């Protein structure tokens, strides 16, 4: 398909080329980008012979070509390239011999002492650059694996003599001096422990990850020699070691220091670590445990198993045969693929042999100097990583060389590079003109919409048009708001816009007729005019008291005339006195009182003549009453008995708190359980995904033994 860059087209921009042309897209406006492969580094594989060529360092030798490529990937379009591999002659070899020094290996140790010079002599046809190292292992220094009494830690073989127990010791780092290897091994003594399986997995992990060993950029071989089975992850729990092995180096003075801290490594952890460090493992074991290590080897890529004869006399032949077997097979592996990206291999091996699928990654029976090829195809379904470049690594298993493949995703047309920001074609510069269409800047779009509302870009006659363009009468609410004369709801806004009738509180405050709370203000709201002569009102009447200052602001009379509830002082007095209002303070004289039994007997709330009030006395009881005013005084109706609330019931409160706490606790437990279920499901899904990406076959656990034993009674006849 191809995108049409025709401006303002209303139809789909992505379609078949002919369909776009039929819709009116000119050919010059069509884009149909294609993926491609570019080789960035292409050093040729090394061609030389050991007997006539100069000696090269390992980083000067090339066995796979090319070394770096860049792929421009379009969704659904495969990109194919070829890799060439050739085993180089006289390639450096690092060999680290890791030996079980339990007491049962005493005779084997004697034969290994001459390994250095003999192995160098036998391997001279394979390489002139050989380095040897030596390490030993026994067991974790904790019960029940080793007796931890002081005497047994000094000599575990008493009454015989042997060396103190240990977990792992790096006896000699990699060296090209064969005699130094012989001398270091000659100084070693065996030791003893309690159980039969040994702690060799700890030793393998430390020998692989520790830089003290001195691994070079060379063919790396680790020879593991033992006559016993192995402990693995989970066995450490017998000694209370529950922390999983973290796969890090803990060597101090060439001794492993965390044997009593971490559990043993898992088999898969060892396999990943060996593969990551490009180390090939040779298990040199006796005949008794050969089946166990053969099954273990099936779980560890690029590993081999050989049977030691009595006293390890055939160890050199075993190592050379295993090396030739491992080196004759080339297996390609790749790093984790981005989401939506797939890869496939086709191998083109010796004698015209071709492999596809899983067999497309490997070739067998490859000798030194043989050249083989692999066709690699990579396809993407979309644009992972939002179009950002990613790098994929392809390497021969257990080799130090690799091919870097840079993946670029074609998620945009070429015209994307010529985009015009703030183009006039995009609504007055509020977008980017890209490939013939506008891509909005949403922040600018919002500003554009707000600006069009402010400047009249809306239908004529609409409310917004009226507000923005001043189509309303001067002095109206809309006029005041739009012209910014006063804040909505303020006194000025109410007064100027006619929202306060003459004589109202707002009108009085706005127009300055009488200060709020003053006597004239109170009188003006008492429905009568203020006279300068106090005699205009009957002496003793409410109007007389108010006009002549007998009603101080805030007193009961002032409160009644101004629409507020009378204070509790007069209410309590009138309720308690039997002699009438004359027995109360002066401000209470103008009230007449009638008592009722219940709140329901008070004048109804719908009666506009009366106002309903509630006051609290000194005993925290509430007095309910209603009152009304007239020209001569005030009339009050009061409930005879105050409403007193009893104290809180402690039992329901305590019970409610306890019940609420329990419910909240249960809710938190349920939430925690739900979160754990979600977490477990995610972890299981992650495990399933990692299992699918595993690079080795899934077979039976090599250390599994059935717990069922069947015994047949020889006398049983089936009756």
Automatic annotation (TrEMBL):
GO annotations of cellular component type: cell surface; focal adhesion; integrin complex; synapse
Query: GO terms for molecular function, please?
Result: C-X3-C chemokine binding; collagen binding involved in cell-matrix adhesion; fibronectin binding; integrin binding; laminin binding; metal ion binding; protein kinase binding
Can you list the disulfide-bonded cysteine pairs? 157-162, 210-249, 383-613, 411-415, 426-438, 435-469, 483-496, 497-500, 570-644
Q: Where in the cell is it found?
A: Cell membrane
Every copy of the Integrin beta subunit cytoplasmic domain together lies at 673-719
Annotated Integrin beta subunit tail domain ranges read: 565-649
Question: Mind listing the GO biological process terms from this record?
Answer: cell adhesion mediated by integrin; cell migration; cell-cell adhesion; integrin-mediated signaling pathway
What protein is this chain from?
Answer: Integrin beta
From the broadest rank down, the organism's phylogenetic lineage runs: Eukaryota, Metazoa, Chordata, Craniata, Vertebrata
